[in-house]
Amino acid sequence: MSGRDPYTYVTASLKKKEMHLEVSFYTPDLVANAWVIEDRRPYLSLRSDEAAVSVSSAGGGPVSARDVTLAREIYNAAARYLADCERLYAEQGSGAPVAVEPDAA
Questions:
Q1: Quick check: pTM over 0.70?
Q2: Which residues contact 96 (CB under 8 A, 6 or more apart)?
Q3: Are 23 and 1 spatial neighbours (Cβ–Cβ below 8 Å)?
């Protein structure tokens, strides 16, 4: 363990009149949720006490093929993140297996 306290890091930069915003969550106090708005817009949210990031369909409109592709990319990245977390946790000899909580959806 590194001994660092959990934190959320938010940076904003302006380069050649283009704004760039980055949010990095380094905390177990992160809440991830997904739902559908008005029966037509999928919505994904990652939130800590300090910051939030949300993803929804392009322009808040109907779901497009690109939205489906992006959702698959997010799903695959989350699956890799889960696999890496489980592997590293096991390699650290961190004790009992992590209990799987039921999906709150």
A1: yes
A2: none
A3: no
Contact 21, 10 (CB under 8 A): yes
55 burial class (0-12, 13-18, 19+ CB within 10 angstroms)?
A: middle
Q: Residue 8 forms beta bridges with which residues?
A: 25
* Domain span including residue 44: 28-91
Structure token pair of residue 45: 């949210």
- Total of domains in the chain: 1
Residues paired with residue 12 on neighbouring β-strands, in sequence order: 21
Residues 31-82: tens digit of each pLDDT: 999 999 999 999 999 999 889 999 999 888 899 999 999 999 999 999 999 9
Name 20's Cβ contacts closer than 8 Å, sequence gap at least 6.
12, 13, 14
